[in-house]
User: Fold this.
Amino acid sequence: MSFNDDVYKIVRSIPEGYVMSYGQLARLAGSPRASRAAGYAMFWCPYDDIPCHRVLYRDGSLSPSWAFGGKQRELLMEEGVTFLADGRVDMKEHRFTGPFPMLFEQEEEEDEE
Assistant:
């Protein structure tokens, strides 16, 4: 399976109301330093059944490729995702860690600094 296939499989597993960062996604796909590649995989995703809107920056900022028209925010709000006053997703509330919470501890610690 390719990196992109792994990324798509992981993103399909993110439930409604939750999000994941590009870094989390890359780490789960086996390439912890490939968050940009995970972003490209999302941008060029050829499948309609992948909830690409659930992947964003680690600080909860929305993806630039979704910036026009506010569609990403709209889709997330429809799923019950809440936003902070500055427009970022509340990652403490909505970060999906799936069955592997240990993989995300380092990123969460970095967010708190």
Observations:
- The chain has one domain: 3-112.
- The longest helix spans residues 3-12.
